[in-house]
Structure formats: structure tokens, C-alpha cells
Amino acid sequence: MNNHAIKSGLMLGVIGIVLTLLIYIVDPTFLVSMWMLLFFLIFIVLVSYFGIQHRKEIGGYMAFGKAWIYSMQLLVVAGIVATIFNILLYNVIDPELPSMLADQSVENAEAMMSRFGMPEDQMDEALEKTRTDTLDRFTVMGSIKGFLVGLIFYAILSLITGAIIKKKEPELE
């Protein structure tokens, strides 16, 4: 199981890198938009696909616990690959990108706050915090912290995909 999860995690990590690069080439501001939720759906589908393939390889059955562990291992490997790539992208390949994304995040937040009628003084404070938090997220330490916090997200995602992957062995009478 470990080898399959690692290989699948590496593939998922590479797929994530390719998608990120495509978004970066088309319009980097999409990296801080709601479109990134599509990544969530793609990852659920791919983790489920890899898990079902593995389940078929090992005889067609997998308990929920093993499916959860498989999914978690796969997502951790993919997360490590993505974190390394993000550190390179935001700190080596395009060090100006975090500033551009922070500006876009502030714009997005300002539009949402205006729609909800937030008072101007509260909005200014919240927008400055948004800018600072966004810039911090793209530092090396911010990327590492993001990965560590992401482990909680991976555990939840693994519960979902584990439920999709699992298949009980029929009980013999």
C-alpha cells in the first residue's frame, strides 16, 4: 500500500504543479480566487480514482481504515511536492508574484466587504490584515506552516475519499 500511495501521491503532486503552472500562465490572479475550489474537487476525484485502482489491485476489497490511511499517505506526499514547488514558485521563479496575489486578495476582500456593507474604518483594518496574511502565506515559513495546517484538511479529505474507496468483503455464511 505504501508504494502505491507514494507513487500516486507523486503523480497527484505533479498534476497539481501542472495545473498551477497553467493557471499561472493564463492569469496568476486565479491563484487567489474561488476557482481554486476546483482543485478540491479534482483532488477528491483523483484520490478516489487512485484508491479504487489500488483496491482492485489488492483483490477488490479495502476496509475504511486502510482506505483512509492510503488516502492520507497519498495526500501527504502530494502536499510535500506542492509545498516544495510553491516555495520555488513564490521565492525563486517569480518573487514578485506574492505581492501581485496580495493585491488581488485585497481587491477580492474589498469587493466582498462592500457588498456586505462593512463600515469604512473596519474595512481598512481588515484589508491591511488580508494583505499581511496573504504575503506571509507565500514565504518559506508560510508555505511550511500551510502544509502543516493542511494536514488537518488532508485528514478530512481522506475521510471523504476513504468512504468512497472502501468496499467491504462479503461475509460468508
Structural account:
The protein is mainly alpha-helical and 173 residues long. Helix content is 80%, strand content 0%. It has 6 helices and no strands. It has helices at residues 2-26, 37-57, 64-93, 97-115, 120-137, 140-165. Helix 1 packs antiparallel against helix 2, helix 1 packs parallel to helix 3 (64-93) and helix 3 (64-93) runs antiparallel to helix 6 (140-165). 22% of the residues are buried.
Present the secondary structure layout.
Blueprint: H1 2-26, H2 37-57, H3 64-93, H4 97-115, H5 120-137, H6 140-165
How would a textbook summarize the main sheet?
Answer: none
Q: What's the total number of strands?
A: 0
What is the oligomeric state here? single chain
Helix content: over 70%
Span of the ends, CA to CA: 29 Å
Average pLDDT, rounded to a whole number, is: 92
Radius of gyration: 19 Å
What form results from the Cα inertia axes? elongated
- Number of H/I helices: 6
H and E order: HHHHHH
Structural class: mainly alpha
Strand content: under 5%
Contiguous uncertain segments of 5+ residues:
none
Structure summarized in a few sentences:
By secondary structure, this protein is mainly alpha-helical. Helix content is 80%, strand content 0%. The mean pLDDT is 92.
Give the tags:
mainly alpha, 173 residues, single chain, elongated, 6 helices
